[in-house]
Amino acid sequence: MDSPPGFTDEELARRRAMSRRLAWILGAVALAIYLVGFIYYRP
Amino acid sequence: MTTHTSPHAQHYFVPQPSPYPFILSGGMFLLALGFILQMNAFALGSWIMMAGTAVILFVVYNWFGKVIGENEGGAYSQWEDKSFRYGMIWFIASEVAFFAAFFGTLFYVRNISVPALAGMDPAFSLWKEFTATWPSAGPKGSSFTPMGAWGIPALNTALLLSSGATLTWAHWGLLKNKRSQLNLGLLLTIILGVTFLGFQAWEYHHAYTELGLTLGSGVYGATFFMLTGFHGFHVTLGAIMLMVVYGRCLKGHFTAQRHFAFEGVAWYWHFVDVVWLGLFVLVYWL
Amino acid sequence: MSTAPSLEHDTSHGHHAAPYQGGVMRWLTTTNHKDIGTMYLTFALIMFFIGGAMILAVRAELFQPGLQLMQPEFFNQLIGVHALVMIFAALMPAATGFANWQIPLMIGAPDMALPRINNWGFWLLPPAATLLTLPFILALFGVGDGAVATGWTLYAPLSVQGGMGVDFAIFSIHILGISSILGSINIIVTIFNLRAPGMTMMKLPLFAWGWLITAFLLIATIPVLAGAVTMLLTDRHFGTHFFNAAGGGDPILFQHLFWFFGHPEVYILLLPIWGLIPHVLGTFSRKPIYGYKAQVYSFIAIGLLSVVVWAHHFFTAGMPVPALLYFMYSTMFISLPLAVLFFCWVATMWRGAMSFETPMLFAQGFIVLFGLAGLTGLVLADVAADAQYHHSYFVVAHFHYALFAGGIMGVMTGVYYWLPKWTGHMFSETLGKWHFWLTVISFNLTFMPQFFLGLAGMPRRIPDYALQFVEFNAISTVGAFILGFSQLIFAYNVYKCVKGGKKATDKVWEGADGLEWDLSSPPPHHSWEVQPVIK
Fold it and tell me: DSSP secondary structure string, C258-273?
């Protein structure tokens, strides 16, 4: 069986770190939207 | 997932290309098209229907014949046999769902829609004299006599229940390799089934000519004829399948170990039996 | 499941390989799951464009208020047939095509369990699609008054009074239903009986699990639809009174029967997609699927719940308050297992070494947009809110987020993911990315304004509208045309990939995991004739 060329170990580690960082950022944004909505709800 | 090939694996039977599925689909298209045209009063309709029916019968005869031939030729092992069994079980499950739709309808009209009509304010209702008594022809229907439970229907219940017993007796005969018991049991089952159908036809005739009970007799007539009608249709199919199996038994097909066709038909027969019990209690009796 | 060193396997066990005929006879008579899968997918693609063309005509009519292009009767025919074509002739056949191609490859089966039944299931589709669309053509010759004009729900009494098109739709639904039942039986039997030795049910790939639950739902609900349209037929032509209060019946009974089928149908369309998405996420995150068992149990829970929530489709038709409350809470309860699925999808990507090839992009788009469908569904599940939003464009937008973003984009995900395996060629990544971005942007351009239209009170199924809805309708139409024409990129990309292109490796995707990737690309005509053994 032949396999497609893969990433190097460094590249894999870099992508893991990136995805973890992105996830935290997205989570923080979602939380911020929630809090803003919680504070400034309609009168 | 670690894999390796097993050295002694058996081969599943994958049939050669077959024209029957395609032709059968064409036949069903003609049947449907013809039926639509016929209902909408096009003269061509019934001819197209007949052509479609002929194609379907041709394919059913040949396709089943081919499968029987493959089976007798030893193409199927236990493995393929299991596929047929699972297939039949889930086919019957779909039939259960089909009848459930009609039983559900019966429940709904008896417990919800007819009482709701009775509960309408007479001042705004179109039907001042309407009372919610079951069986109902509905507010505007003409009167009829409902079908009683303890005449023909009770006899039919006895017929179908005993046909289930004779079929099981035939199965025991097959398992013990008593071929005469098998053949006699099957023949009795077929006779009982056909007698049931005869009584059912007589009952329909009686309903239409003497009781004034028709498909148009409000929602009672609709549920009565649709439920018993679809059941009768299934009994007819079951009886035809039993006849085929009987013919195969006479030719010496089936062994005590290998007889899927017999069992599949027996399951089907017991299924229509159970549906009848539901009908007897919910449609005729209560 | 761990990524495995795959071992040599012998694919030359061709001693009973069917000598298939060449030309058109090969396709008419085939018993091969790959051929049948290809036919299903091709048929789905063709019908996708036919259904799409219908709705572009509708959107063109809605570009401006007033009647421009067509009469209201024809408008009604187009929207109803669009829905029936997209659901029964595009989405469901596409999912069945996936099942045919992939389930035997993924579970190590030599073929589908009942190959001739399999072929029959496919060949019932063209006649059914013909019946559905034939009234359009007959009307051109002065026969009948066109196709079914009741909307796809066929509500009585409108459908009882409708023209010949309703009869065509009824029989089309019957034949489509038989096809679905046959396909379902085949898939259940294949999964139960033809799994590779050692593949226990809890090692079954999630895609197969999703389809297994789908198949059970089809067997439970399609016959009820068949019963409902049969009653409709007898009400139309044989004098029964099932849906007529004058005879003691009730039009709302039809709604109960229809939605007893119709709500599970949503999950029938989506469960195969929920099954394939985790495979794609795992592959491109280079991680094992997170929460396999939780996802299996969620599939089962959703399958069970889906058959007990149907009446939320007609809260406004009138029901006792306890019934309203029951259907509201049970509907909202479905969001729990669905949330489990969402969390599992996200957790599969968490800290993964992600890369964004086309299938991964579509999977991402699926998660976000289908999430919006779920959230707006909670709004509609609320009895009080539904009194406002029922039968408005909010509903239209909601179910297109579910069935286009959840259904069609899920199918696109699967096609891009598995196409190199099926054809042995890579598709064009550039075109794939263009297709993705154009689809996502124009999809939102089309349907996001419809949420606002619905909130503002625009009813669905009307060819004309009040002047305050002009801007959003114009935007929606522009979006729809971009969306429709960008699908041509997809068709072209698939066509090029079938014809040729860069050679695909056996594993295709570096992070792929599963039995199908052990086979060559494309796999031999008869694969797994000797079953692999799973440890």
Answer: HHHHHHHHHHHHHHHH
